[in-house]
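Retry 2 of 3 after timeout on previous attempt. Resubmitting structure tokens to design endpoint.
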């Protein structure tokens, strides 16, 4: 197993991450290296990793260092140690399948497979916290579903029908499998969020990076198709005001914001709801 690491300047890290996720849609590991440098790493067998020239191009002028490291044979077992159960407000547990059942009323089993995360990342956690505040019910749309954490949680919280969209085939597969694993119904489809019409739903969750959220804000319909409420995650704290303004221009205004470390999420509501 090979660990391929890209170190970049923090000021450009978000843009680099968006490019890297195009090359490695299964997700990247993020490592903090002080105030100025961020390291992103991908894992895979030789021949499965992105080409070095493609990584250099993705990092562009932000590149500080590019390195490869061979990982011990027990990496797969040690990888499991990074995926620990997440317990929120004594009401919801998100855990990988190798962990014992939680003691909360809602116990979600999420296997990341080749998709991104089991729910422990700060942005996913913030989105789940906001979802727990809302009254479940009506159609729910998860844009960029990853491993399906938000979509599966929505189904368990009483939303129906639940639709999950992602452009990554591995994410579509993982979400469908995790929905079945938890005994819930989720319609999962492959969809390019940068193009085409977005489905309408009463509640929308979009745990994405800021550039894609900006694009989605511009393409939201200003009519009856506008959601009553939307959770926008995947934001750095310094990006919240700009993204809130982009959605406000389309009729979704900020009702609440939450942050955890350098990450933040927004709850937006339709002005006439």
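Retry 2 succeeded. Sequence:
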């Amino acid at each position: 197993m090979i660990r391929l690491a890209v170190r970049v300047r923090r000021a450009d890290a978000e843009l680099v991450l968006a490019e890297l996720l195009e090359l490695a849609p299964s997700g990247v590991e993020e490592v903090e290296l002080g105030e100025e440098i961020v390291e992103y790493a991908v894992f895979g067998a030789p021949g499965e990793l992105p080409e070095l020239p493609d990584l250099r191009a993705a990092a562009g002028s932000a590149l500080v260092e590019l390195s490869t490291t061979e990982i011990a044979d027990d990496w797969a077992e040690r990888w499991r140690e990074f995926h620990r159960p997440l317990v929120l407000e004594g009401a919801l547990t998100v855990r990988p399948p190798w962990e014992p059942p939680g003691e909360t009323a809602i116990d979600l089993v999420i296997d990341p497979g080749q998709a991104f995360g089991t729910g422990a990342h700060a942005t996913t956690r913030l989105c789940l916290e906001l979802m727990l505040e809302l009254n479940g019910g009506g159609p729910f749309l998860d844009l960029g579903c990853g491993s399906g954490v938000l979509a599966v949680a929505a189904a368990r919280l009483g939303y129906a029908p639940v639709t999950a969209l992602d452009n990554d085939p591995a994410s579509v597969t993982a979400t469908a499998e995790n929905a079945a694993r938890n005994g819930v119904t989720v319609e999962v489809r492959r969809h390019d969020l940068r193009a085409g019409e977005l489905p309408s739903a009463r509640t929308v969750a979009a745990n994405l990076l800021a550039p894609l959220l900006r694009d989605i804000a511009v393409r939201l319909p200003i009519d009856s198709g506008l959601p009553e409420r939307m959770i926008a995650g995947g934001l750095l704290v310094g990006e919240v005001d700009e993204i809130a303004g982009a959605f406000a221009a389309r009729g979704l205004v900020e009702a609440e914001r939450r942050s955890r470390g350098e990450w933040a999420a927004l709850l937006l509501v339709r002005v006439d709801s």
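Attempt log closed. The first helix runs from residue 13 to 23.
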